[in-house]
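Known limitations

Files may contain more than one protein. Parsers should not assume a single record per file. Below, a two-record file is shown to illustrate correct handling: read the sequence, read the token line, then continue until end of file.
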Amino acid sequence: MATSTPRADGLAGLWEQVTTPQPAPGRVTVLVVGGVVLLALMVPFVWHLLRHGLTIVHEAAHAAVAVLAGRRLSGIRVHSDTSGLTVSRGRARGPGMVATVAAGYPGPAVLGVAAAWLLSRGYALGVLWLLLLVVVLVLLQIRNWYGLWAVLVSGLALVVVTLWAPAQLQTVVAAGLTWFFLLGAPRAVLEMQVQRSRLRRRGGRDTSDAGLLAGLTHVPAVVWVGVFLIVCGALLALGGAWLLAVWPVA
């Protein structure tokens, strides 16, 4: 008698869960979750803690574009001060290098928009698995112990929610993470500009993404900061519209 293997059943069941829309929270709930996330981003200690999640996605964006541009990825580092570094090999200048450096700050906003699109169609579990996939891919390239710890903790938290949390909690967590990436992306750009201003007053060398892009393109770093803000702001507006338009008022 033919029987299916547990592995096949598990994969089929998982795919069914990911592709089956879940009940969505009301618009009021989405607004409350967004408000909580916004407040959290304004508290320095909480922001510093949560900033590691943005750094992981930021570096993942650098890595993804580097590979797409034909560069050779050497590794990713995430540091305790929430900074990060993605090393790739290839031409030191040119469009590929510019695209690689420019991808970091918009990266979380792009992921947030993708998550908002999925949530707008009821795929909260799909959002969680998408984020887990990003974490796993970063884990394969991490090259320092603190970065390994940060990525593992993030991945473990996602696994717990994805596999064992009730469906309603999964949806709320997915909405919170979506707001986090959408709202956190412009917050990180503003933080970079503040750090650049402090560094400039001290006469230090600007090694931020905007500073690196200025050296690569001869376009002033402050212009790149403005470009990042415009892109992240536009993606926040788009993602926010998707989050709020599809769910009826509770």
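...continuing to the second record:
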Amino acid sequence: MNNQLLCLLQLAFAPVGAYSYSEGIESLVETGAIDSEITLRNWLENSLQFGAVRVEAAVVVRALRAAKIGDLTALNYWNAWATATKETEELRLQSWQMGRTLVRLLLDLREAKLSRRESPVASELTTIVKEFVESGSNQCNFAIGFGIAAASWQIEEEAAVLGYLYSWAANLASAGVKLIPLGQTAGQQLLLDLQSQISCTAQEVLHLEDDDLGSCSWGLALASMAHETQYTRLFRS
């Protein structure tokens, strides 16, 4: 249990460049749509309830399950599906960059342990990751990479989803702290306030059927499109 918790913490805060993205929050702050802890919390809560991150977390679950059994067909299918759901170029490039970085990190960590004794599960998953990268377009979405890493480190589904949602919330709370700006204490209070919604969303995601996957993310799409042409930018999305 302790090892799994440590693996989850390492995965949730892996150095994949998430800090350079605001997912449209920068443009919303620019227009005044988000200007306080309250408005930022409302945006993040609505995103968890109805937005794209809810669907991405569901893709994490499917990638984890496919990686566990070595189903490359399913991995490629859900990777293509995840790409198709990205409504703007910025969001698509963000997912690809973070996914590519995470997969490369996972492979590098495994190669660094070649001289050590690995479990059959870990060795098999390393092969699956390589085959997935080589057989696909080499553009791996972050949700897919996260699911593969969770399977490789034998993290349970519920814990993986919670880690994915929390890392997403922590990154955007950090972006809000810098942009609005907010104090660090306000940012931490925001994350505490989001805990209940994160847990609720995680439970819903685990029980979603494939035909139920969908989101109401037009606000994110509009914010992202506005950000693509914003004059001054600190973030890449």
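Parsers that stop after the first record will miss the second one. For reference, the second record is described as follows. The mean pLDDT is 89.
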